[in-house]
Design goal:
- The chain is built from 24 helices and 17 strands.
- The strands form 3 sheets. It has an 8-stranded mixed β-barrel, surrounded by 4 helices. A 5-stranded mixed β-sheet has the order 2-3-1-6-7, with helices on both faces.
- The longest helix has 50 residues.
- It is elongated and about 135 Å long.
- It binds ligand C2E and magnesium ion (MG) (2 copies).
- It is an enzyme of class 3 (hydrolase).
- Keywords: c-di-GMP, Membrane, Transmembrane, Transmembrane helix.
- GO terms for molecular function: cyclic-guanylate-specific phosphodiesterase activity.
């Protein structure tokens, strides 16, 4: 069943499902009535043999037999056909025809077998007809037109016969028959309504169950199998491949730059693109392969039995991956837009070891990431070396969770120095005090925290700890503390409120809190970013763009951002003396910042030469090993706002509070 069909179709489909059930009920009664009717008809004929003309009896009996045979024949055809909802109308007409013929033959008895001069025979006939009518009401009421026609054609002739007797009794009986007909019609109508209601309820329940089942196993947007169904199939496929000695493969596919489509053209169009991709993928697969959607722009293709050994399987998997890439060569045309989309694919073969579906998907995911790192629009096989990286990642993820719970994180601070030699601020840099490994650099775990979502808790911890430190510092020497905010953390809906709450809770001067965001955070969604930055700025907090120069910033948006500082990336700063390109770039950034009314700070200042160059070009804020490495908070407090002159040979540092 396809749950994506529109409501009207579903409704019409539902109605014909119910009507077919009603037709089925009518046919289900045929064996009983088409057996019972010939028997009673013969009995009636015997009873009336002496009073009614033999030709009439035999003629009527033949009609009854023919009709019964016809109804049996209809019944067998119906059973053999196993009709579908689309055949409903045809079988509805057949059911009506059977009921009409049966009604007509019984109606004929009211004229042909009516013995005007024999009251007992009239009673026999009446008695039998009433019985037949009562039986018909129970069996034919499922279809109201059928029972209505049956009642009219069976009752009216005998009513007429009684009426034609011209006696008072005859007229009374005719009246009674008419009354009986109305009563039966009403009963049939009620029965029909109850039946239709019951069938509708049953149908709705079945449909609801089918929908729930479908939703549980299929992706709503693309109607492809979802993660759960993929896991089930993959589990079965792994077991089957083990048994039969075959290899299969998983292709983990992620669209390149899909986010840009969503951001620039809207989610509705993004959804249409995903649907179109799903359609192309499923059209190209073999019957036995499965394309599933894991969520977002991630698809998985499960190829079963593609080789007896890994080299054969690799070649085939590679061929399918190339074919899939070919699929993307043709642009997608959606709502007047021509979209060029590519995909990065990670491939893993199975079963090469005891891995379960979860492990396999994770490996394919890792290989897909490698394809992205290597430049996108390509495929990569999973390699054992990637497994090592994956294991490390998992260990870090697990450890970091524990670190957050058991307070193993610590904030270090790296002083930020003015051209005149004063420390005016410090950047908070998180460190992980691992019980076995010692101090771990954020380079090792921030990216993993981002990927796994742990960054929310980690970022919040950092912000809270930094605010607490600002408060403590305020008593000794108020420094502006810069806190790195990851893109995910910045996007958190409650982020602005959280910043406000922390400022209030720690009773700090918001001017002492400075947030560093990266170009990627800004580019992610410029409008939303600006709105959010404005809200935070209105609290009194300022912003810097960190690692400036590594992203794809444009002047156009830089002008609109409510920032105060550009932080020139270390990679350019460290090479300015040797690399003329970097020197030009850094100089350009400084000039541009000046024009925009922004401050610049150079990070990674390690030598006096670099410092001299920067000063000459007009950069007046510095951070780097030349001044100080990041130090624990207590050490920053001990510095009391200045570095000892012998630790800082290039510039004179005196304690001065900003
Ligand atoms: P970042 O924000 O660009 O921080 C500057 C990094 O450069 C720091 O590395 C710092 O120790 C290093 N650095 C500063 N001066 C020098 C120098 O003269 N020479 C050299 N070679 N390096 C220098 P760290 O502490 O390892 O942090 C690395 C990155 O991790 C940070 O880069 C930042 O992106 C991220 N990070 C650190 N703490 C946090 C945090 O609390 N939250 C978030 N989201 N990211 C953080
Ligand atoms: Mg930073
Ligand atoms: Mg930086």
């Amino acid at each position: 069943m396809n749950i994506s069909m529109d409501n009207q179709t579903a409704k019409n489909g539902g109605q014909s499902d119910i009507l077919l059930e009603q037709v089925r009920l009518v046919f289900a009664s045929v064996p009983f009535s088409a057996t019972f009717i010939p028997i009673v008809s013969v009995l009636l004929s015997i009873l009336l043999w002496d009073t009614v003309g033999h030709e009439a009896i035999l003629g009527w009996l033949s009609a009854i037999m023919l009709v019964s045979l016809f109804r049996w024949w209809q019944y067998w055809r119906f059973q053999a056909a196993q009709p579908l909802p689309e055949d409903t109308e045809r079988w509805w007409r057949q059911a009506l025809l059977g009921a009409a013929l049966s009604g007509l033959s019984w109606g004929a008895s009211g004229l042909l077998l009516f013995a005007p001069e024999s009251m007992p025979d009239q009673l026999f006939l009446t008695f039998l007809l009433v019985g037949v009518i009562a039986a018909a009401v129970t069996t034919l009421s499922a279809l109201f037109p059928a029972i209505m026609f049956f009642l009219l054609v069976t009752i009216l002739p005998i009513t007429w016969s009684f009426f034609s007797l011209g006696t008072n009794l005859g007229t009374v009986l005719a009246g009674l028959f008419l009354f009986f007909m109305l009563l039966m019609l009403k009963t049939a109508y009620r029965l029909n309504s109850i039946l239709a209601e019951t069938l509708t309820m049953r149908h709705d329940k079945v449909m609801a169950e089918a929908t729930i089942h479908h939703q549980a196993l299929y992706d709503e947007l693309t109607d492809l199998p979802n993660r759960r169904m993929l896991f089930d199939h993959l589990g079965q496929e792994v077991a089957r491949s083990f048994r039969h000695g075959y290899l299969g493969a998983i292709l983990f596919l992620d669209l390149d730059n899909f986010k840009n489509v969503n951001d620039s053209l809207g989610h509705a169009l993004g959804d249409k693109l995903l649907k179109a991709v799903a359609q192309r993928l499923s059209q190209r697969l073999r019957q036995e392969d499965i394309a599933a959607r894991l969520g977002g722009d991630e698809f998985v293709i499960l190829l079963s039995e593609i080789g007896k050994d890994s080299s054969q399987a690799s070649v085939r998997a590679q061929r399918v991956a190339s074919e899939i890439q070919q699929l993307f060569l043709e642009p997608y045309r959606i709502d007047g837009h021509t979209l060029y989309v590519s995909a990065s694919i990670g491939i893993v073969l199975f079963p090469l070891d005891e891995s379960d579906p979860g492990d396999l998907l994770q490996r394919a995911d890792v290989a897909m990431y490698r394809a992205k790192e290597d430049g996108r629009d390509r495929f990569r096989f999973f390699q054992p070396a990637m497994q090592k990286a994956l294991d490390t990642r998992l260990t870090i993820e697990k450890g970091l969770r524990k670190a957050l719970e058991t307070d193993q994180l610590e904030l270090y601070y790296q002083p930020q120095v003015k051209a005149d030699g004063n420390i005016y601020g410090a950047e908070a840099l998180v460190r992980w005090q691992h019980p076995e490994r010692g101090l771990i650099s954020p380079v090792e775990f921030i990216a993993i925290a981002e990927e796994t979502g742990l960054i929310y808790r980690l970022g919040d911890w950092v912000l809270n700890a930094a605010c607490e430190h600002i408060r403590q510092l305020s008593a000794v020497c108020p420094l502006v503390v810069s806190v790195n905010i990851s893109p995910k953390q910045f996007r958190e809906p409650d982020f602005v409120n959280r910043v406000r709450d922390l400022i209030v809770a720690h009773r700090i001067d918001p001017k002492l809190l400075h947030l560093e965001i990266t170009e990627s955070t800004v580019l992610d969604n410029i409008e939303q970013t600006i709105e959010r930055m404005e809200a935070i700025k209105s609290l009194g907090v300022s912003f810097a763009i960190d690692d400036f120069g590594t992203g794809h910033s444009s002047l156009a948006y830089l002008k609109r951002l409510p920032i105060e500082t550009l932080k020139i990336d270390r990679s350019f700063v460290s090479d300015i003396v040797d690399d003329p390109n970097d020197a030009v770039l850094v100089e350009t950034i400084i000039v541009m910042a000046k024009h925009l009314g922004l401050r610049t700070i150079a990070e990674g200042v390690e030598t006096r030469e670099v410092l001299a160059f920067l000063e000459e070009k007009g950069c007046h804020n510095f951070q780097g090993y030349l001044f100080s490495r990041p130090v624990p908070f207590q050490a920053l407090m001990d510095m009391g706002g200045s570095l000892l002159p012998d630790e800082m040979p290039a510039v004179k540092l005196v304690q001065r509070v900003v």
